[in-house]
Amino acid sequence: MPVQAALASRAAEASAAVTKKQEWRTRITEPVRWYFVNTGATPKRNGNAKGPDVFSGYGQPDKPFASYGALAAVYASLFSGLLFVTHRRGAMPERIEARDIGLLALATFRLSRLVTKDKVMSSFRAPFTRFEEPAGAGEVEEDARGDGLQRAIGDLLTCPYCVGLWIATGLAFGLALAPRSTRLLASILATVAGSDALNHGYLMLKEKTQ
């Protein structure tokens, strides 16, 4: 009887261990199974794997989303670095005056057009863009070319609204770290923006009087 009781106890312990092992296996595999079922991914077989297409719902699968993310990471790193340096030097302003915001807005507008549209600056954009057509007033229309990072940089360099964020960030931190030099540069760009507006106004008036 003692031997039978001992064998029964060991059998019960072994059964409990197997049950517990199965419970843990279920806890581990159930989230994995849910992932594959709900994302459309398939597990690796013979070294090959098909990952989930997380961007399929966007409707533009040719877009270089990973490279866009890399550019966003570069911007975040630059912003964090400039923020750290500004704090370290004790140059962080409590607020920016309205006149400085207006000056930086005009400077950002003009410099973003210069970077993304200016005919002379096209030599710097050429590795990432292709020429489409002249746009008048010394500007050109271009489109991004290639794929991956080349395409992402091309999209950035042909979009004044996109580049504007980078330029405004640089000018704002420049105002904090080197206010005199930044105001001088911003004043030059703002003056050019005003001159461009006057030139366009003059041409429109000249066309109406002819």
In a nutshell, what does this entry contain?
With 210 residues, this protein is mainly alpha-helical. It contains seven helices and four strands; from the N terminus they run H-E-E-H-H-H-E-E-H-H-H.
Notes on the structure:
With 210 residues, the chain is mostly helical. It is built from 7 helices and 4 strands; from the N terminus they run H-E-E-H-H-H-E-E-H-H-H. It has a two-stranded antiparallel ribbon with strand order 1-2. It has a two-stranded antiparallel sheet with strand order 3-4. Helix 2 packs parallel to helix 6 (160-177) and helix 3 (98-117) packs across helix 6 (160-177). The longest helix is centred in the N-terminal third of the chain and has 38 residues, at 2-39. The mean pLDDT is 84.
Q: What labels would you give this structure?
A:
elongated; mainly alpha; 210 residues; 7 helices; two-stranded antiparallel sheet; 4 strands
User: Biggest sheet, open or closed, and with what strands and sense?
Assistant: 2 strands, antiparallel
Range of strand content: 5-15%
> Uncertain segments of ≥5 residues (pLDDT<50)?
none
Strand order of the largest sheet: 1-2
Q: How many DSSP E strands?
A: 4
The number of helical runs is 7
Q: Cα distance, first to last residue?
A: 121 Å
Order of helices and strands: HEEHHHEEHHH
